[in-house]
């Protein structure tokens, strides 16, 4: 199940007081939203009349026109049976006027949610015209009391949730409700709402757009929900106030989309949101469950069932990135990379500080060992020690290429670390003789013997210099089990254990711009070098003959799989669909399926290596540390996942 919902924020041009014109435009936007295959469309606060009508709200003529307009919208909505709409309107209930969100679907008036918090400060005078939802005399209102010419009742109150699709609950709040210490949406989320819409008329002042964005992002995060905010456009502007039409859709603390122009009106913002992400976060974060237990009784909600309200979004508009671990925006990416590097440094620095040890790093000239060496050098610097207290050891053997050998030496010399070369060719050859292995047979024994010999030498060498072996293996390798048990799988502290392969080049590039500028040229060449374990002999020209991604698959795909398997718990079918969209034009569906099956097979069978992994610094929300983030039996069966992947 894909579990997406498509939300449209509709901002028609409003004509203050001209309810007939506004009704016509709202009906037109219902059609536009339906053409966009939206499941839900939300309009601005008081879209039927305009927010700034002031004392005109007291006029019988205006209130009568609102009811007539709603009747027309109800009739028009019959043409769009798969679309739920939330329209802002002033309504008279029990002799008082309320600023309401009216929920409509397929000709039915499903419910009315009045605004709770009425601003009465600065430029706002809402209490002059409206009453709060707290003042409602009853929880049901008759259609005739509202002014409609037909019989029936409708639920009314801030305690309403609306069930859409396969159990998806939606809540409604209005503008100021979000800007308070206890937004109604918080209680809605505690009662199960996964989607919250906000009908707003927020005027623009300097810096307010940024603050508004932070509010929406924050509320979607703390409520673990999808939050859609739709604000009145610039045609609402009158007298002293300017309105900008700022609309946003957020999910779990991330902005999925917002309108582009600072001052805008007459537009439709359409975004897919992933309900699966909301559900995954709520399942994993037990504090959400605790909050439900502690506070949901404060204001229990009534659920309005929306008949046949099946969601139709397939998620094709959902903003996917090929590398979920790597921010697309360059400035954010550089900042994130520097943060990760600082966390790595802090972790290693603390370990070295406590035990009074130096850092020993096996330097291959590849990405992982390069990052580990940079971390060790910076940790050493922060401890006030000379760079010579970092020991860089290169251990060439059968597969070492000229390029990586040269880069390893150049890097160590430029960084000023103590260097040591220990060629392990003779030791491994002797080992082959001892165990009776033909060195001409390039199988797993041939490769693993080199990895284990390197680890043994590094461990023993660390003992001679009073150091610890800094592990170089990364998160992606741990996921795939692309490491030799008791070889490169083992160290005394793993600085890269929480860093995915696709992010490592960016971290190196980010820190090169500042602290390691003298080594920029060699670091760039290391980034450009094909990824390889270098366990098979180079070609006749001395170049790398064994490339990792030819053997285990593209790391871009595997990191994509890893993120959605661990972070979201998605099924193979959903991950496959997402990957086909994200990598369209780069990998065919057949290739994606091939490596997805490989990922699940390797991920399940290699857990025993992760269960025995050393301490390693956690840097992000995805981690395979068996002592904290990922606990899994070594002998778990992958059958269900592989069968689903096979049948894609």
In CATH, the topology of the largest domain is named: Nitrilase/N-carbamoyl-D-aminoacid amidohydrolase
Question: What's the β-strand tally?
Answer: 20
Q: Which percent range describes the beta-strand content?
A: 15-25%
* CATH superfamily annotation of the largest domain: Carbon-nitrogen hydrolase
Largest sheet: 7 strands, mixed
Widest β-sheet, arrangement of strands: 13-12-11-10-9-8-15
Features:
single chain, 648 residues, alpha/beta, Nitrilase/N-carbamoyl-D-aminoacid amidohydrolase, Rossmann fold, 2 domains, seven-stranded mixed sheet, six-stranded mixed sheet, 21 helices, 17% strand, elongated
What does this structure look like?
It is a single chain. This protein is α/β, with parallel strands linked by helices and 648 residues long. It folds into 2 domains: 302 residues, Nitrilase/N-carbamoyl-D-aminoacid amidohydrolase; 223 residues, 3-Layer(aba) Sandwich (Rossmann fold). The protein is built from 21 helices and 20 strands. A 7-stranded mixed β-sheet has the order 13-12-11-10-9-8-15. The protein is elongated. 48% of the residues are buried.
Topology, pairings included?
Layout: E1 4-11, H1 19-35, E2 40-42, H2 60-77, E3 84-93, E4 96-105, E5 108-114, E6 140-142, H3 143-146, E7 153-155, E8 160-164, E9 168-174, H4 184-190, E10 195-200, H5 208-222, E11 226-231, E12 248-251, E13 254-258, E14 267-274, H6 275-284, H7 286-295, E15 302-305, H8 330-355, E16 358-362, H9 367-382, E17 390-394, H10 402-415, E18 418-421, H11 425-435, H12 444-465, E19 467-471, H13 475-480, E20 493-494, H14 504-512, H15 520-528, H16 548-551, H17 555-568, H18 572-582, H19 589-605, H20 607-611, H21 639-646
Parallel strand pairs: 1-2, 2-3, 8-15, 9-10, 10-11, 16-17, 16-19, 17-18, 19-20
Antiparallel strand pairs: 1-14, 3-4, 4-5, 6-7, 8-9, 11-12, 12-13
């Amino acid at each position: 199940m894909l579990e997406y919902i498509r939300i449209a924020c509709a901002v028609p041009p409003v004509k203050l007081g001209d309810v007939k014109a506004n009704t016509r435009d709202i009906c037109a936007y219902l059609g536009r939203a339906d053409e966009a295959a939206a499941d839900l469309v939300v309009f601005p606060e008081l879209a039927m009349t305009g927010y700034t009508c002031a004392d005109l709200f007291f006029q019988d003529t205006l209130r009568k026109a609102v009811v007539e307009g709603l009747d027309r919208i109800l009739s028009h909505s019959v043409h769009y049976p798969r679309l739920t709409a939330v329209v802002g309107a002033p309504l008279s209930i029990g002799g008082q006027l309320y600023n309401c969100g009216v929920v409509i679907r397929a000709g039915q008036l499903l419910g009315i949610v009045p605004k709770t918090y009425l601003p009465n400060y600065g430029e706002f005078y809402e209490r002059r015209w409206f009453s709060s939802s707290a003042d409602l005399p009853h929880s049901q209102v008759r259609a005739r009391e509202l002014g409609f010419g037909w019989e029936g009742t409708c639920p009314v109150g801030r305690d309403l949730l609306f069930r859409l699709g396969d159990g998806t609950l939606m809540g409604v709040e209005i503008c100021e409700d979000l800007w308070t210490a206890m937004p109604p949406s918080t209680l809605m989320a505690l009662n199960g709402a996964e989607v919250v819409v906000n009908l707003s008329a927020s005027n623009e002042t300097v810096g307010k757009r940024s603050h508004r964005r932070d509010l929406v992002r924050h509320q979607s995060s703390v409520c673990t929900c999808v939050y859609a905010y739709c604000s009145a456009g610039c045609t609402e502007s009158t007298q002293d106030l300017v309105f900008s039409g700022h609309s946003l859709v957020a999910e779990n603390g991330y902005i999925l989309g917002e309108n582009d122009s600072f001052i805008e009106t007459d537009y439709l913002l359409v975004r897919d949101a992933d309900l699966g992400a909301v559900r995954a976060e709520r399942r994993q974060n037990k504090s959400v469950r605790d909050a439900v237990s502690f506070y949901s009784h404060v204001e229990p909600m009534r659920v309005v069932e929306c008949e046949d309200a099946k969601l139709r979004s397939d998620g094709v508009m959902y903003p996917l990135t090929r590398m979920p671990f790597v921010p697309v925006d360059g400035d954010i990416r550089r900042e994130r990379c520097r943060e990760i590097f600082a966390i790595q440094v802090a972790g290693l620095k603390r370990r070295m500080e406590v035990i009074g040890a130096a850092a020993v790093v096996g330097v291959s000239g590849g990405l992982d060992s390069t990052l580990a060496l940079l971390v060790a050098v910076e940790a050493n610097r922060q401890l006030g020690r000379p760079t010579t207290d970092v020991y860089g050891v290169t251990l060439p053997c059968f597969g070492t290429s000229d390029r990586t050998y040269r880069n390893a030496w150049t890097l160590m010399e430029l960084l000023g670390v103590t260097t040591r070369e220990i060629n392990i060719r003779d030791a491994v050859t002797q080992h082959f003789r001892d165990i009776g292995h033909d060195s001409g047979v390039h199988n797993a024994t041939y490769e693993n013997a080199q990895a284990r010999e390197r680890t043994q030498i590094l461990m023993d060498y660390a003992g001679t210099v009073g150091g610890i072996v800094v592990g170089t293996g990364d998160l992606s390798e741990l996921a795939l089990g692309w490491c030799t048990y008791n070889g490169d799988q083992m160290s005394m502290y793993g600085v890269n254990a929480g860093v995915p392969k696709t992010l490592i080049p960016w971290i190196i590039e980010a820190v090169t711009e500042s602290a390691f500028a003298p080594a920029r040229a060699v670091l760039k060449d290391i980034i450009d070098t094909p990824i390889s374990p270098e366990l098979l002999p180079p070609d006749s020209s001395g170049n790398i003959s064994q490339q990792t991604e030819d053997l285990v698959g593209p790391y871009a795909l595997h990191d994509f799989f890893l993120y959605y398997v661990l972070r979201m718990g998605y099924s193979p079918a959903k991950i496959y669909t997402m990957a086909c969209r994200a990598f369209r034009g780069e990998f065919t569906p057949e290739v994606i399926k091939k490596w997805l099956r490989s990922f699940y097979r390797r991920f399940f069978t290699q857990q025993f290596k992760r269960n025995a992994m050393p301490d390693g610094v956690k840097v992000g929300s995805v981690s395979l540390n068996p002592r904290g983030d990922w606990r899994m039996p070594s002998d778990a069966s992958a059958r269900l996942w592989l069968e689903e992947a096979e049948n894609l």
